[in-house]
Design brief:
The protein is of the alpha+beta class. It is built from 15 helices and 7 strands. The chain has helices at residues 15-26, 31-34, 38-48, 53-66, 70-75, 78-85, 92-107, 116-119, 127-138, 147-156, 166-179, 185-198, 217-220, 281-293, 352-363; strands spanning 238-246, 253-257, 268-269, 272-274, 296-309, 314-326, 336-340. The strands form 2 sheets. A 4-stranded mixed β-sheet has the order 4-1-6-5, sandwiched between helices. Helix 1 (15-26) crosses helix 12, helix 9 (127-138) packs across helix 12 and helix 10 (147-156) packs across helix 12. The termini are far apart. The structure holds adenine (ADE).
């Protein structure tokens, strides 16, 4: 990596100088660092929201291959975008990327805006992502503080306030702004994120290999493992969910597409829903099939049980074989409904839990 020459020189390196030097030596080779177009920074930063680097890499490579630029993304059907995103989670991100690409094609010549202020107006782009794109792709002198960078800064400046509060986030962002170098701002921002991801880790940080160890107030006071402070998470609720694998005599099974504005919107599923208090799983399925598709089903044997954790809750998905007893399926509370042969299930975008059920259906 070649850095812009740094104009400021003094005997003691600044935090920014230390970070830039460290990043040149120690940063990981990541696919989005090979070529820095605004589109690539945008896609990678959206994928990296709430998702680990190792998970993102293969998705990023496939996404860029299939949708190499804004024009290709805008021209694709949403279902193709969701299919490439399948398994990455937080599907609203994919829907928003697609919607934004279409909007940029229509009204901005297919170009992303260059300032963080304008970028922040795009759907799904908050202060962090706008700062990351503006600094890394356009060189704007603006901070980009994600969870990794926030941890680094809370430790360096021994900030003991609850980091989940927005006042603390603002304070950390203001500190980050003060540290920005006059050149290489994007590299600096990425370096702080990288330090948080690889050295200044949540547990057992490697302070002996940290370029900021001399500056770090938490380290000086032996507090690096206690910071940052966050209020304890509430216990995540658990729901039992029933799903119907309704099979016709010709072997086709019934799938429904979730409403676009709902969680997992646009994905296909075996219809069903959350079990209410006092209801058995079979009663729940019969009710959900009436409400969602206007049909009466007979509920048969259980096919599979899948445990899955989302950010704010956990589910146990109970899939049952069903038979249509009465009525023709129509969408009362879904985006579309379709009979498909088991082998065709692979081409539909589905959530991780439903994909496991689909694989079971296909295997027997
Ligand atoms: N997390 C968020 N942005 C990142 C980046 N550019 N590199 C590595 N991890 C990140």
């Amino acid at each position: 990596m070649v850095l812009e020459e740094n104009r400021i020189s003094s005997s003691e390196p600044t935090i920014a100088q230390r970070m830039l030097g460290w990043f040149v030596e120690h940063s990981r080779e990541l696919p989005w660092r090979r070529e820095r177009s605004p589109y690539r920074v945008w896609i990678s930063e959206v994928m990296l929201q709430q998702t680990r680097v190792d998970t993102v890499i293969p998705y990023y490579e496939r996404f860029l291959e299939r949708f190499p630029d804004i024009e290709a993304l805008a021209a694709a059907p949403l279902e193709d975008v969701l299919k490439v995103w399948e398994g990455l989670g937080y599907y609203a991100r994919a829907r928003r990327l697609h919607r934004t690409a279409k909007e940029l094609e229509r009204s901005a010549g297919g170009q992303l805006p260059q300032s963080s202020e304008q970028l922040e107006k795009l759907p799904g782009v908050g202060a962090y992502t706008a700062g990351a794109i503006a600094s890394m792709a356009f060189g704007e002198r603006v901070p980009a503080v994600d969870g990794n960078a926030r941890r680094v800064l809370c430790r360096v400046f021994a900030i003991r306030d609850d980091v989940t509060r927005s006042a603390t986030k603002r304070r950390v962002r203001a500190l980050a702004r003060e540290l920005l170098p006059s050149e290489n701002v994007g590299v600096f921002n990425e370096a702080v994120i990288e330090l948080g991801a690889t050295v200044c880790t949540p547990r057992r940080p490697s302070c002996s290999s940290c370029p900021l160890a001399d500056e770090c107030q938490a380290y000086a006071q032996g507090e690096q493992e206690e910071l940052p402070v966050r209020r304890p998470r509430r216990k995540t609720p658990h729901y039992d969910v029933a799903a119907a694998v309704t099979r016709r005599d010709d072997g086709a099974v019934l799938v429904a597409q979730r409403n676009v504005e709902d969680m997992l919107g646009g994905l296909w599923e075996f219809p069903g829903g959350k079990c209410e208090d006092g209801e058995t799983l079979k009663e729940c399925l019969a009710r959900e099939m009436e409400e969602e598709l206007g049909v009466t089903v007979g509920v048969g044997q259980r096919l599979l049980v899948v445990e899955h954790a989302y950010t704010h809750f956990r589910i146990t998905l109970h899939a049952y074989w069903c038979r249509l007893v009465h009525g023709e399926p129509r969408c009362l509370d879904c985006a579309a409904v379709r009979w498909v042969m088991p082998e065709a299930l692979s081409s539909l975008p589905m959530s991780v839990a439903d994909r496991k059920v689909a694989e079971m259906v296909q295997s027997g």
